[in-house]
């Protein structure tokens, strides 16, 4: 469960989002909203990238304010337009994440195979296409033992085959490890073959939860 308490995010005194109290059960959520509504801001605050007022915790235990290191170890995030140090290889970066996230032995190799980027792991990131950088960011998002995975526009630059691989991985992690997902996407995920449990929309600085019956999960 992902819990928000007295959450508030503003930029230069301009309110972006406010959440008095909210508990999100572990599920697959599609986060929707107009450009500038606060989707990326919400994900970045949960990931601990930008500051905010209030607190966010997982299962009432690990809190980003009280125990930020433990919290970040169980919250993984893939940005919409990821950038990485170009002098590193993909494998260099993955190894850093494996150590920081205390990933199980062999997990990274399995993810590299499932996302299908093994041929490029020894190459400098400077030589990666935008699609390869996106795939690398998705591998990193699944490393470790995440309780929640946050994906910001994960379908951008991915071809149909890569999308199917990603959706299969999302379903596997949710079913096998009870991992929750917050997926921000302008695209209709159902039409893209990824059925979600619930939709979250952002309207007038507030989150609105829309429940629907999952199909095909």
UniProtKB/TrEMBL annotation:
Highest taxon above the source species: Bacteria
Family matches, as SMART domains: AAA
Record-level Gene Ontology MF annotations: ATP binding; ATP hydrolysis activity
Alphabetical UniProt keywords: ATP-binding, Nucleotide-binding, Transport
Annotated InterPro entries: AAA+_ATPase, ABC_transporter-like_ATP-bd, ABC_transporter-like_CS, ABC_Transporter_VariousFunc, P-loop_NTPase
Domain ABC transporter: 2-217
Record's protein name: ABC-type multidrug transport system, ATPase component
Organism: Echinicola vietnamensis (strain DSM 17526 / LMG 23754 / KMM 6221)
């Amino acid at each position: 469960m992902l819990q928000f308490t007295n959450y508030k995010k503003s930029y230069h005194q301009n309110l972006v989002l406010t959440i008095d109290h909210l508990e999100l059960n572990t599920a697959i959520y599609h986060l929707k909203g107009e450009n500038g509504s606060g989707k990326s801001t919400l994900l970045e605050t949960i990931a601990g990238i930008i500051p905010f007022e209030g607190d966010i915790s997982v299962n009432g235990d690990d809190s980003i304010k009280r125990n930020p290191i433990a919290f970040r170890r169980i919250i993984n995030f893939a940005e919409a337009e990821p950038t990485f140090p170009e002098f590193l290889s993909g494998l260099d970066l993955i190894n850093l994440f494996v150590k920081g996230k205390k990933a199980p032995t062999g997990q990274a190799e399995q993810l590299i195979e499932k996302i299908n980027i093994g041929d490029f792991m020894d190459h400098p990131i400077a030589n990666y296409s935008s699609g390869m950088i996106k795939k690398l960011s998705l591998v990193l998002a699944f490393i470790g033992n995440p309780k929640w995975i946050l994906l910001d526009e994960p379908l951008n630059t991915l071809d149909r085959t890569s999308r199917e691989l990603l959706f299969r991985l999302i379903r596997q992690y949710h079913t096998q490890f009870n991992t929750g997902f917050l997926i921000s996407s302008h695209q209709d995920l159902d039409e893209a073959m990824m059925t979600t449990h619930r939709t979250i929309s952002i309207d007038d600085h507030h989150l609105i939860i829309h429940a629907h019956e999952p199909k095909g999960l």
